[in-house]
Amino acid sequence: MEILIFYILVAIGVFLSSCSQILLKKSAQREHTSKIAEMMNKQVIFAYSIFLVSVIINVIALGHEVNVKDLPILESLGYIFVPVLSLIFLNEQISGRDITALSMIVAGIIIFYL
């Protein structure tokens, strides 16, 4: 049961990483006064801080018996989280082709763990 907690922790880390990507895109869409202001604003610094937390979560999980071969499969959840978060926060559309691809990713994850 304890190992399941660390697998869930990795999934949370992937979700946080996906949220960070959305924040970076929102920041990139805004007009900035200079290149420095574009790269050193609160949104960007917060997004990279979230990335750092995600990495720390992965390191902690790997130190608690999360199998290294499982990590890339769990990281593929990001391919699901990012389009959904983009739809919600950036009003981007998800095409039929995207839904097919996302379905294949989910199927791959399920097959891997059977």
Descriptive tags:
mainly alpha, 6 helices
Chain-wise SSE layout:
Blueprint: H1 2-29, H2 35-39, H3 42-62, H4 71-75, H5 78-89, H6 96-113
Descriptive report:
There is one protein chain. The protein has 114 residues and is mainly α. Helix content is 78%, strand content 0%. It is built from 6 helices and no strands. It has helices at 2-29, 35-39, 42-62, 71-75, 78-89, 96-113. Helix 1 (2-29) packs antiparallel against helix 3 (42-62) and helix 1 packs across helix 5 (78-89). The longest helix is centred in the N-terminal third of the chain and has 28 residues, at 2-29.
How is this structure best summarized?
This protein is an all-alpha fold. Helix content is 78%, strand content 0%.
Helix content: over 70%
Number of helices: 6
Question: Can you tell me the overall shape?
Answer: flat
Structural class: mainly alpha
What is the C-alpha radius of gyration, as a whole number of Å? 16 Å
Largest beta-sheet details? none
**Low-pLDDT runs:** none
How many β-strand runs?
A: 0
The succession of helices and strands, N to C, reads HHHHHH
Integer average pLDDT: 89
Strand content: under 5%
The CA-CA distance between the termini, in Å, is 18 Å
